[in-house]
Amino acid sequence: MNGLSAGRSAPHSDPEIAWRSAVDASCRTPVSLFLLSSVFWLVFGTILALIATLKMHTPGFLDDAAWLTFGRVRPAHLATVIYGWGSMAGVGVLLWLEARLCRVKLPLALPLVVACALWNVGVAGGTVSILLGYGTSVEWLEFPVLWSLLFAVAFVVVMAASLLMFSGRRVSHVYVSQWYLFGAVLWFPFLYIIANAFIHGGLATGVVQASVNWWFAHNVLGLWFTPIGLAAVYYLLPKVLGRPIHSYYLSLIGFWTLALFYNWAGTHHLVGGPIPAWLVTVGIVGSVMMFIPVTAVAINHHLTTRGYFARLKVSPTLRFIVFGAMSYTVVSYQGSLQALRWFNEMTHFTHYTVAHAHFGVYAFFSMIMFGSIYYMGPRLSGREWASAGLIKLHFWGAALGILLYWIGLCWGGFIQGLMLNNPDIPFLDVVAYTVPYLWSRSVAGVLMTVAHFSFAVLVWKMFVGRSTGGEGPTLFSRGASQETVDDGGEA
Amino acid sequence: MNRVVFLYVGIVATVIVSFAGLVSLPEIQLRDLAPIVGENGEEYPVEPQGLVLEGRRAYAGLGCMYCHSQQIRPEGFGSDLDRGWGSRRTVARDHIYDAPPLLGTMRTGPDLVNIGVRQPSDNWHLLHLYSPEITSPGSTMPPMPFLFENRSLELETPYDALAFPPGVVEEGTLVVPRREAKAIVAYLKSLNASRPVPEVVQ
Fold it and tell me: Tens digits of per-residue pLDDT, B26-57?
């Protein structure tokens, strides 16, 4: 099909494309609102991150105000990027993918807009609470429970819309992306409600709360971000390349082994801690078994893309999602290794863990969300991206930033761990050793900040500004293979 | 069973099984852990109350645990014991009154589960909170001047004014801890997991 700018929302003579445009049009308001909100929180969370990283090597920076102390800015950063950026982008992508894959118009538009508003109020209220000192000091669950209730309500609407689309779907085949999306939409509310009830509601006592905490926190990545990210790759890779996924059976193995094993991985955060040894062992086994789904997905994606890597030069969407998909493999293997007792003994309390966590949420999940938004934007807004140069700036700032971040803190953190385990080295010498690596993290943070601002400008121009962009899709280069970079491929 | 039903059941079942494994089972195993009662009827651990509880709340609200852990790993696993951070590994019983437990996952700063034993001086803690480099040169801990009040020179030095080492601040500077600072110090001084417990053979 030679549909470069084939009236992404205008009626079209081909009924298939006309129907697809109608689906996109039904998503326009709610999905755009979720995406716009997510980008706002991305920028907000990035500023908090920058303050936090500078404080780590220059503790006197902004030390006068309680609300800007490191111990508040850091959890506020995490909360805004997880619940504001990651989850809201994730919901936007999830709703649109489901509408597309079920070939139905997005239902519950008004309730979804209300849910989006509640979600924003929740993130804003929760973040302000943390900065004012009302954070709970439970990692990934820092918001006081009042704000958590807002999420729970908002999420019920998202879940209802998903289930309505699925039950009303107009295709009998259930595509692999839909398995993952169902997982995400059923798993996350379960995890969130249980974790809040058992920790903040006090149903669990003492160190069991720590077990619940890490069961939940690791599953936010494993059963919420990961399935949405993989669903987007499984959908967009064939779309952009114009060829089907390599193997159905590998997809099947990848999904069900993830569902079986990822659940159990969380307690590797408590290796050596004051909890029953079996609980840690179970977490380690779950983490190591993740080798299976990760390998299955990696092979499947690689064999789908093989022979088409030249397209990375052309398509922004492809470049971001391939970077994300490759990072999934790297970060997951790293995670399996890190869970082993002998390795964890060195890295557990160090910056190595921080590097790993950021590679998962950023290099894997966030990059895929960026790529997905680059694909969805023109279809939701009926406009083109304003500037290929800004997209390039976004990509290189983000990619080089996260790589520098990861390499610097993995190395610095690993040596930090070795030094900590040698009792002859005074503690403050270990602190001094890490400082240059903390600076490298700040440099990386500046690169990522530049990337996020250029992304925000693009999103603003597309959804809010008046410019309609150029003619045809905004690609990195006007190569010969443009035509397949649009809506090629199967459903 | 058709595929869609299988999908639903599979998705729900996998997460419920892990919930049972990582939430319910440990709760059943550990919920009856009770304090140890010593020969004179004294109990360990002690439920935090009053100023200590207030301090715990402030410690949590300031996010201290993002840099300080509160757990001692076992002998032969890491150097926790060799660094003198504790006399035994910590166990679930040490935390029965902790809601939430502040075990932490980072050691940007040292472990604090026995800080009450290691550093008994009020003035040291207060100086350290006010400006960590006074007590620990090279520390990257954030100074927390907002926990203190600067007073102009008064006729009588307040009883709780910080005693600075010579040359650190200008002559005549008066710094007095606010209630929150005192509460945090009370909490830190209460942290003591050195009492022998039956779980750890020493």
Answer: 999 999 999 999 889 999 999 999 999 999 99
Q: Consecutive sets of 10 residues in chain A, 491 residues long: mean pLDDT of each?
A: 40 78 94 98 98 96 95 98 98 97 96 98 97 97 94 94 94 92 96 95 95 97 97 96 94 95 96 96 96 96 93 94 97 96 97 98 98 97 94 98 98 98 97 98 98 97 78 71 40 34
**Which candidate in A57, A63, A68, A70 is best for mutational testing of the B interface (most B CBs within 10 A)?**
A70
Q: How far is B45 from chain A (nearest CA, A)?
A: 12
Domains and CATH numbers, chain B: 49-190 (1.10.760.10)
Tokens of B176: 């007095």
Residue linked to tokens 């689906």: A23
Give, in order, the Cα–Cα distances in Å from B37 to each of A209, B96, B194.
24, 14, 15
Contact flag B30-A55 (C-beta cutoff 8 Å): no
pTM attached to this predicted model: 0.94
In angstroms, rounded to a whole number, what is the distance separating the alpha carbons of residues B156 and B166?
20
Residues in B closer than 8 angstroms to A197, CB to CB, are none
Check whether the bond before A59 is cis (ω within 30° of 0).
Answer: no
User: How many residues are listed for chain A in this entry?
Assistant: 491
- Return residues 26-65 of B near A (CB < 8 Å): 26-27, 29-31, 33, 58-65
Cα distances from B169 to residues A444, B127, B147, in angstroms, run 36, 11, 17
B contacts of A63 (beta carbons < 8 Å) = 142-145
Secondary structure of residue B174 in the 3-state scheme: strand
What stretch of H or E contains B36? strand B36-37
Distance from CA of B170 to the nearest CA of A (A): 19
**How far B156 CA sits from the closest chain A CA (Å)?**
27
**Selected residues 93-132 of chain B with any CB under 8 Å from a CB in chain A:** 94-108, 110, 132
Partners of residue B22 in chain A, C-beta under 8 Å: 211-212, 215, 263-264, 266-267, 279, 282-283
Would you put residue B34 in left (φ > 0), alpha (ψ -120 to 50) or beta?
Answer: beta
Query: Which of these, A159, A143, A157, A154, lies nearest to A195 by C-alpha position?
Result: A143
User: Which is nearest to B15 in space by CA: A339, A293, A220, A93?
Assistant: A220
**B19 with A421: Cβ contact below 8 A:** no
Which residues of chain A are within 8 Å of residue B144 when distances are taken between CB atoms?
Answer: 63, 66, 69
CB contact under 8 A, B140 and A74: no
ipTM attached to this prediction = 0.95
Per the structure block, which two tokens stand in for A451?
């990337």
> How remote is the C-alpha of A164 from its chain's centroid?
25
CB–CB contact B106 A353 (8 Å): yes
Q: Torsion angle, CA of A419/A422/A424/A428, rounded to 10 degrees? A: 30
DSSP letter string, A60-81:
TTT-S-GGGSHHHHHHHHHHII
